[in-house]
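Hey team,

Sharing the D-alanyl-D-alanine carboxypeptidase run so nobody has to redo it. Sequence (423 residues) first:
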Amino acid sequence: MRVLTNSILFVLVYFFLFSCKSAAVKKSITKQFESPFYNNQFTGLLVYNPKNHDTIYKYNADKYFTPASNTKIFTLFTALQFLPEQLPAFKYEVDNDTITIQGVGNPAFLHPFFNDSTALKLLKPYKKVNLILDNLVDDKFGPGWAWEDYDTYFSPERSSFPMYGNVLTISNQDSLQSTPRLLKNNIQLAESKKRRAYNANAFYYNPKRKDTIEVPMVLNDELITKFWQDLLPNKVEVSKFSGRQLNKIAYNVPADSLYKRMMVVSDNFLAEQILIMASSVLSDTLSSRRIRDTILNNQLKDLKQQPRWVDGSGLSRYNLFTPTSFVQVLTKLYKALPRARLFNLFPVGGASGTLKRYYSGVSEPYIYAKSGTVGNNYSLSGYLITHSGETLIFSFMNNHYKTSSKEVKKQMQLILESLRDNY
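Structure output:
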């Protein structure tokens, strides 16, 4: 009886202490939001403790915001639901000395970072290679993407069987170099505002530069055939997708290596291709819309506010998500994955990726979160470790401000540090 009484007393004291902490934190955050800084922008915040199910703070949490790259949290969740630990590289079928291969959206083949060569190793022994490229129903650009970004590194075209990350990599240290090398003669040394012609593979590189740049390529069957013929001379032909199923699957890179790269440096191309790759589990006809609809109607049917979700990366301003939805998905991830693996996939405040210059801890990191930035919009959603050892899940979204993003982050940091120090 005494043991039971002590247990009840402990629970009551525990909840009393957290109730006091929550009240103090709420008062502090409310005071921040009442400052003139937040008068002319739209802000939402939800902070949740998954251990005791305490909603620590809620402000416009059920309203819709433009999420930018916070969208990648949903892409990560989808990939973890559908894709294996070793990613499918492509599907194939062998008929004597002929091999037919079909893309599944995997972006790692000859990518500047991953430099995967699984396809080359498998195809070399065969006399003839049939390459199927037209099984993707998505347009090369996502809905609502800014057209003027066509020459920027963060906006490559989507495709069923990417090569070289679908970008031309140009450097000029000792001499002008390009990958793939076949497009070297398409590079003009010129001081141009743009890095490529609008709809052609004519590239511009400032001769004063010494760094390496990546410029999206304009993709078509002719160009891709030339790349393959350069790799495997007189072997490769592009074939039409007939709908016939290819039963064998080749695998290449560990899934987490791709997910981490997508999240930490906020790689839009990887995010788009990861969604396409996840759709290959449902059908040989690749469709990011199909996989988005599938996950929303099944694993995420319990979301309190269903999002408007149109791409994998968050490049589109058509996307609309609420802080509540992000916290719900982050909570699902927190419950499903080991803590070390989960936190390893996110940028770390003051230490890595897009958060390297922001949200530094005192003696150790306290923020593991995904940022999202498009003009006049900045959001941050993820996990916060308090000094008392609690793990909080939060989504902090800011839209339509006209101040600098740097100032927005500074104000956000005051609130996040208050949570860290006082809860």
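Residues 2-33 form the longest helix (32 residues).

Ping me if you want the raw files.
A.
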